[in-house]
Automatic annotation (TrEMBL), chains A, B:
GO biological process: 2-oxoglutarate metabolic process
Family that this chain belongs to: Belongs to the class-I pyridine nucleotide-disulfide oxidoreductase family.
Gene Ontology MF terms in the entry: dihydrolipoyl dehydrogenase (NADH) activity; flavin adenine dinucleotide binding
Name used for this protein in its record: Dihydrolipoyl dehydrogenase
Signal peptide interval: none
Record's miscellaneous remark: The active site is a redox-active disulfide bond.
Cofactor: FAD
Main subcellular location: cytoplasm
Catalysis performed (reactions): N(6)-[(R)-dihydrolipoyl]-L-lysyl-[protein] + NAD(+) = N(6)-[(R)-lipoyl]-L-lysyl-[protein] + NADH + H(+)
GO CC terms, sorted: cytoplasm
EC number(s) given by UniProt: 1.8.1.4
Entry keyword Oxidoreductase: yes
Ranges where the Pyridine nucleotide-disulphide oxidoreductase dimerisation domain occurs: 332-440
Length: 450, 450
């Protein structure tokens, strides 16, 4: 039986990073993956959606740039070609990850891990022994117990990414990040899209004001908020409104995007503590069994690819490293890659109010910004909000809606983690013209003194 | 005679920010501008070029997106419409600045300032008195003493921005930021472009490796490096090569972009010390006359719009503020908004070598990044380099070539100013997928320990 310092189960952005980092430290590492390298993120999530959204953005640019002096005729979108480009991207990334594993001397085994006990895992007939175990099995889309939810035209994000034709009428059940990104993509390429969301607003992690503007900017999409789906047929989706009325909307394709659930089937032999989110872990990603760590969606503490990768590093640092890091959640950025883009990091105004925390805040319009105006025009909507502690003036949150948000937001993470204050951000120099400058302008809007 | 707490001369990104900040502090401020609000940046520099580059980017997207599944026929570019959009952008920004001045109770006078003495300025027949003077008159393009430099088809950036037709053969003399942005724009829209640069490489502030890749990625442009222009005729531009050979290249339009010189005509009555860069200032932007400050291109210490704005705040903080700030140059970001984009902040490897400074550094390829791959493909070139102090491990420089660089780079300013070290950046969470993540990956490439 081959013995390893570490066995990692699942090769998504949690698992492969854990394997890479431990391998780089000279440890003998086994990585087990039942499907493709890269997990949901690379194969069925972050990457394919961004590839399709990029195609849709280029389609819009070809179709709607007359104001910029660009004219084109007969602009068409070929969903099969967009999928082919997407597939090429995915395959390149997959082989990149395989190369990374090789480079860090990680053994990779294809197959389903069968847990025997905290130190033994079987794949097929072969048993492996490990001093430590990192569980990174990810999550799967939740299919709600609604009549018609298993009809063939009712898909989750996994299924819709395989669909090589465009729907005519798409209904999306669930207005979270996944639902909104697909709504953006399909509406950009001309599909009639309806979103049905049970909560009073889409994108619950987002500042409420921003979510409202986001909906308003997604002009091709109909939103039904506070509505509960009660049944799906071959032809339509039925739902009750907030007022209790029953309504229906036609659909030839339905996307269910109401959430994802931790993949914890088969972990019973490990005797791990679990809760509604998944495997219970402490701030070092350690489970109740001291040699077992759980990272990413399987612990459900922050269902984001980059959280999973960071948790991987936290786990490896505690097992093999010198730094014994802890996971910090207060500056985890998120992004919605729709049209428009949105991103945020840190505290929202609503969360501050719920905590009774005293804050200073200001919001600015993106249309006051030179680059935004030059590229989007004065009728485009966009917002930036900054939140700071009322006493210390430390930056606690940055929220953005508008172009480039997803690439700008990382710096907010740096501001928050470095505990920079209002006066420190005022002394930072931002490049002009950039949309990013709005963060600085918003900080000055909180306090203009020098 | 009206008395002011502060008279600001020049309403560019230095002057109008100085007026705004001082006005916001409740000071009585006069702003004098001889041309349009916003100065060169808004009217003849940053903004119009970014507007045109955005048009060109949309043109490329319409023309070259078949790989993404986007097809269009008869794609054409109308330079007049692109200029009209540009003009609308500029006018919106100008009125935004006027509104800002009104909002901060700044008096604005149109006309040329005539300096009488350190406390008196005339505009036309009216004389104004000021306790303090902030000089922000900017700079103008240098026209070199070359035969033919004053021919009508030989333009500076001011002139070429007024040109409402596309050249057939454009020769650009000078491969700095301005030259390269125009080269990008014109080559994207199909013009035959040649750049002639006297130095051995373009973009001297850029890491040498990046500048070389930048040239390689600008496929439609011919570069002649180490070449000196000796004469311009109606038909061509003649130059000597590094080896001393004489050559010529055809041109119906020539852009001179060899540099800009401080606008210091008429300052004699102020008895200010000047040097080759412009008006001499200390780190607080103070001149040799204690009540006169000089900011932006007129002091020539950092010819960037955002440097000018920051200098404005430094000056105002020292005159009227409580913080008495100093200008710091070590984390001033810059960006080149070409195709591809490039940006940087802080120390380059070449500068570190010149100073004999011991550094740690690593470079990563953008094509290893998920978003870059999804949007640009595996054959596109892009690089990220991070430079850290060998002893303290503090981040000293970040350099980028590739899409979104201009919007990502602000965070590098935060890293450098907050004196974050390699280990701190490793603990920051970057959103996935984003091109920005490459900064983190590059930091791990310097040191992979945990």
């Amino acid at each position: 039986m081959t013995r390893y310092d570490l066995i990692v189960v699942g090769a998504g952005p949690g698992g492969y990073i854990a394997a890479e980092r431990a391998g780089a430290l000279g440890k003998k590492v086994l990585l087990i993956e039942k499907d493709h390298m890269g997990g949901v993120c690379t194969n069925k999530g972050c990457i394919p959606t961004k590839s399709l959204l990029n195609s849709a953005k280029h389609y819009l640019h070809a179709k709607e740039s007359a104001r910029f002096g660009v004219h084109a005729e007969g602009v068409s979108f070929d969903i099969r070609e967009a999928h082919a480009w997407k597939t090429e991207t995915i395959e390149t990334l997959r082989s990149g990850i395989s190369f990374l594993m090789k480079n860090n001397k990680v053994d990779v085994v294809a197959g389903t891990a069968q847990f025997i006990d905290p130190h033994h895992v079987k794949v097929g007939e072969t048993e492996y022994e490990g001093d430590y175990l990192i569980l990174a099995m990810g999550s799967s889309p939740v299919v709600p117990p609604i009549a018609g939810a298993t009809l063939p035209h009712v898909l989750t994000s996994d299924g819709i990414l395989e669909m090589k034709t465009l729907p005519k009428k798409l209904v999306i059940v669930g207005g979270g990040v996944i639902g909104i990104e697909f709504a953006s993509f399909y509406s950009m390429v001309g599909v009639d899209v309806t979103v049905i969301e049970m909560m009073p607003e889409i994108l619950p992690m987002m500042d409420a004001e921003f979510a409202t503007l986001m909906r308003r900017e997604m002009k091709g999409v109909s939103f039904n908020l506070g509505c509960k789906v009660i049944g799906i047929t071959e032809k339509d989706v039925r739902f009750t409104t907030a007022k209790g009325d029953e309504k229906s909307v036609e659909a030839d394709t339905v996307l269910l995007s109401i959430g994802r659930r931790a993949n914890i089937a088969g972990i019973e032999p490990l005797h791990l503590e679990t809760d509604r989110q998944g495997i219970v872990v402490d701030e070092r990603m350690k489970t109740n069994i001291p040699t077992i760590y759980a990272i990413g969606d399987v612990n459900g503490r922050s269902q984001l690819a980059h959280s999973a990768s960071r948790m991987a590093e936290v786990a490896v640092s505690n097992i093999f490293g010198t730094t014994h890091q802890r996971m910090r959640y207060q500056a985890v950025p998120w992004a919605v890659y729709g049209n428009p883009e949105a991103a945020g990091c840190g505290l929202t105004e609503q969360a501050a109010a719920a905590e009774g925390r005293k804050i200073l805040t200001a919001t600015t319009q993106m249309r006051a910004n030179g680059r935004f105006l030059a590229e989007q025009g004065k009728r485009a909507g966009g917002l930036v909000k900054v939140i700071a502690d009322a006493q210390t003036h430390a930056i606690l949150g940055v929220h953005m809606l508008g172009t480039y948000s997803s690439e700008i937001i990382w710096g907010a993470s740096a501001l928050i983690e470095a505990e920079l204050r209002i006066k420190d951000v005022k002394e930072l120099i931002f490049p002009h013209p950039s949309v990013a400058e709005l963060i600085r302008d918003t900080v000055f809007a909180i306090d203009h003194t020098l």
